[in-house]
Amino acid sequence: MTAKIILDVDDVQMRFGGLMALSDVNLQIEEGKTHAIIGPNGAGKSTLLNVCVGRLQPSRGTVMFEGEILTGKTPYEINQVGVARVFQTPEIFPELNLLENVMVPALAKRDGSFKFNAFRNVMREADIRDEAEHVLEDLGLQEQRTHIAGSLSRGDKRRLELAMCLVQHPRLLLLDEPTAGMSRADTNRTIEILKRIKERGMTKVIIEHDMHVVFSLADKISVLAQGKIIAEGAPDDVRGNPKVQEAYLGGAHL
Amino acid sequence: MSVSPSPKKELATIAIFTVAVLAMPIWLAPIGAAYPDLLQKFAIFGIFAIGFNILFGLTGYLSFGHAAFLGVGSYTAVWSFKLLTMNVLPAVIFGTVLAGLFAVLIGYVSLRRSGIYFSILTLAFAQMSYNLAYSVLTPITNGETGLQLTQQDPRIIDSMFVEAGAGLPSTTLFGLKMSGYPGFYFCAVVLIIGFWISLKIFNSPFGMKLKAIKSNQTRMGYTGFNTRPYLLVAFVISGMYAGLAGSLMAATDPLAGAERMQWTASGEVVLMTILGGVGTLIGPLLGAGVIKYFENIFSSYNENVLHQIFAALPDPLEDAVVAVTSLFVGEGWHLTLGTLFMVIVIFLPGGIVEGARRLKSLVLRPTVRKYGFKTDQPTTRS
User: Fold this and answer.
1) What is the ipTM of this complex?
2) Chain A positions in Cβ-Cβ contact with residue B375 (cut-off 8 Å)
3) Please, what is the end-to-end C-alpha distance for chain A in angstroms?
4) Phi, psi at residue A252, to the nearest 5°?
5) How many CA atoms lie within 13 A of B205 on its CB side?
6) pLDDT attached to residue B267
7) What is the pLDDT at residue B164?
8) Which domain holds residue B263?
9) Residue B300 has what pLDDT?
10) B380: in domain
11) Which of A95, B21, B239, B253 could in theory staple to B69 by disulfide, Cβ–Cβ 3.0 to 4.6 A?
């Protein structure tokens, strides 16, 4: 029962001058699954995501998404094929209100990377508006929808960014530490949201330090250390893997 | 800016605006600004500033070279008067279109960079155009003298219908002379159309995407938008507004000089926009009005006028007061403008519009409104 591979990272190498941030990373993400990437600080986790979304071009190797080569494409082209990303520090539109923040990505999904619709009133875009309101409600941000995004708390900004990604119904969602800096309550709330998304069959790659989050969500875990994948497998297998324990704790038991 | 006005509200806005602009000769009379020359300037620079704001206000890209498009518009309009007809309509259309083409060229290159580098690139292009107009392009621009109408101009279309008169012809709109009040009303109608288009853009999905680019261009990329064409379109639209303003200048006074392209002219529209309120609909227009009013009123004062104003004071005091105030009028009116600009930027970063909004909330509701972002909130904070 091999599932369909949606994202295929093939022999990716990323070199920054003398530093080898990623060396020969191979990673297959199965459709509909939640795949966690864990590893100590500086292991290359965010670099790997940056390579996937086109922020960085790898020194060698390719990234394929549903049979299409992503390497060499720009971030907007990669988004248009169905890959959305939540950043480690929320990337939102701080001067716009929440509703506008979510409507803009919804427009990108509908209109493509460029459309000159300058003579239509935004209020007439009822579909886009409804969709945005629906997602905001889903994430519990409905009451704040006319607030300026820059005035939100950190946790709410992260949820808003998630809403901005979800409104596009991406095939693949990449999350870079979605709960970092969140209170326990907010973290649990985010876990609930992510579980709900999973039921809809959206594939997710999640980078996370919080093991509570990882073990509540992940179907599969890859461990990255010093630019290499050192272990991969189901959560329970990874937990007991001595190599992982060494990478994290220098040999102490988890 | 957070809540976009509905189409109904949009109609109301444009109706009020139309009445206000057309009635300018009436309500500006008490402050001595209701004469056609100045009113024309209000309308023309208003168009220039509205267009500039579509680029600067919506996308945050600060161009320091918009005077180049103003100049292109003027030269094109004068050439249309020389070669084709004294009718202003083709002149205005050609001026706008050619400025737009010019903007495609400059925008395509300049938009490869952002921030200060973009500003410097546009400045460099405008200064290049200015110097070319002065020197190499003399056959087209008539160099230092400036491009003027002459008796020998072919005026192909006009000569088919009427014999050339003895003197220089004047610009017309199908026979209606474009000097004085008719000239103002022509500019006013163009201004209203220009404002309406700007209003449409502000309230459109396109405008919302431009605001999003200003807010976070990185996120726009990861959201699936190719930002470069958006910026280029905004740049070209605002260049066309500048060309339109330039051709209207030529339409009301048919000559064009290279100084219209100089960086001081580019700087002036930046001042107008910031003074009025960046990113607000009406702000740039108010800024243009205030600056042109000050330029005309304060620069016309001289020591004699000041002596008359302060005649009631005892002589030594009168001399002292006149000595100080005379620094700020006549040739020195720029000092007044500079002071005003400093005061606005320091105390009211959102410009006149923010000032009006604060006054309104002070009068109507003394309590602090939650978040305070209700309508046309400028987004100058960074």
Assistant:
1) 0.91
2) none
3) 31
4) -70, 160
5) 23
6) 93
7) 67
8) 7-278
9) 82
10) no
11) B239
